């Protein structure tokens, strides 16, 4: 029987209602597995109790630790795959960070639940069972880090939590599903293309993501740089345009060697330097801004952190983004 390691980190999947009817962490990884029927017929599961926290706690330093734990688990060649239970809120970020830092062909699957373990129809047990099925599937090799909920298998690079509460919350936009976990077999739709891998940084560079708004002033950037910010991800309008008031601060930051990555508040499509009016993307490009192409703000923050751990050169950082998104 194949061996699978389940790494429990917390999230709604491991929560129960308190006396006030509010969800709080309550269930260990081992207890979680006991709620999954027939698991023992699918794989021999071993549990690592990494944490039992809501996913708002998965800060960059914790992601580094989690990635190191996954790599330690995979050092055992007898392990067929890894399943990580996690909160849905920041799951896509953890998945993408692991995608960028773990070079291994064996399946790594993150799963979660929208309904906590007190609910009679919690989606947790079924999601865990399906994640273990994927971890043992012979065709799951070389598909990168995956996210599985609601029978749907997503690629870490494209997936996002698109609905706050639905069990069908996760969505991969134009890329679509990587696969589907049906009752009799797992159907695979896309091959996976691995991108560049990064070594785990000892100290994670401080990158701040910000939502750009009309009337936003440059003083915000200056203040954050004075507090030690090493890079920004600015979620701009449409194709990558910003209010004209920001040009001044952007120019100043770029001259100081602080990279600014532009993403868009529009979930689909690429940012490109097209417009040359004040605040337009073509002018921002000339000031030194880096275009994320189509990567989300949350994921661009992680990629910029890892890029900054290997280079401070704007052209090289742009190449890292362009290569990641071209996959
Ligand atoms: N609402 C979250 C969840 O679905 C809580 C978290 O992200 O930990 O798990």
Explain the overall architecture:
- The protein has helices spanning 29-34, 39-42, 60-74, 91-101, 124-135, 219-226, 247-255, 281-287, 297-308, 314-325, and strands at 3-8, 15-17, 23-25, 44-49, 79-85, 108-111, 145-149, 152-155, 160-161, 170-171, 179-181, 186-188, 207-211, 231-236, 260-264, 290-291.
- The chain has 327 residues and is an alpha/beta fold.
- An 8-stranded mixed beta sheet has the order 4-1-5-6-7-8-11-12, sandwiched between helices. It has a 4-stranded parallel beta sheet with strand order 13-14-15-16, sandwiched between helices.
- Helix 3 (60-74) crosses helix 4 (91-101), helix 4 packs parallel to helix 9 and helix 6 packs parallel to helix 7 (247-255).
- It is elongated.
- Aspartic acid (ASP) is lined by residues 11-12, 54-55, 87-89, 112, 114.
């Amino acid at each position: 029987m194949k061996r699978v390691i389940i790494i429990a980190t917390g999230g709604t999947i491991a929560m129960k209602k308190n006396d006030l009817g509010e969800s709080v962490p309550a269930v260990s990884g081992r207890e979680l597995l006991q709620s999954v029927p027939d698991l023992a017929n699918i794989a021999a599961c071993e549990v690592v109790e990494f944490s039992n926290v809501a996913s708002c706690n998965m800060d960059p330093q914790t992601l580094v630790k989690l990635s190191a734990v996954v790599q330690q688990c995979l050092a055992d060649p007898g392990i067929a795959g890894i399943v990580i239970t996690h909160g849905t809120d920041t799951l896509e970020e953890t998945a993408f960070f692991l995608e960028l830092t773990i070079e291994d062909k064996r399946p790594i699957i993150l799963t979660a639940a929208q309904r906590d373990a007190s609910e009679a129809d919690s989606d947790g047990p079924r999601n865990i069972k399906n994640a273990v099925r994927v971890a043992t599937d012979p065709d799951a090799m070389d598909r990168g880090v995956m996210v599985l909920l609601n029978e749907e298998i997503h690629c870490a690079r494209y997936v996002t939590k698109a609905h706050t509460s639905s069990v069908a919350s996760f969505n991969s936009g134009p890329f679509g599903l990587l696969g589907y976990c049906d009752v009799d077999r797992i159907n695979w739709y896309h091959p996976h293309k691995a991108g560049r891998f990064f070594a785990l940084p000892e100290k994670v560079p401080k990158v701040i993501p910000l939502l750009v708004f009309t009337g936003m002033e440059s003083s915000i950037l200056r203040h954050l740089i004075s507090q030690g910010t090493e890079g920004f991800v600015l979620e701009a309008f449409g194709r990558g345009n910003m209010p004209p008031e920001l040009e001044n601060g952007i120019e100043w930051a770029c001259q100081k060697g602080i990279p600014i990555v532009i993403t868009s508040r529009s979930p689909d499509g690429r940012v490109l330097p097209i417009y040359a009016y004040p605040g337009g993307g073509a002018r921002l490009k000339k000031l030194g801004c880096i275009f994320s192409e189509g990567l989300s703000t949350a994921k661009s923050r992680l990629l910029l952190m890892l890029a900054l751990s290997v280079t401070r050169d704007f052209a090289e950082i742009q190449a890292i983004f362009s290569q990641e998104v071209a996959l």
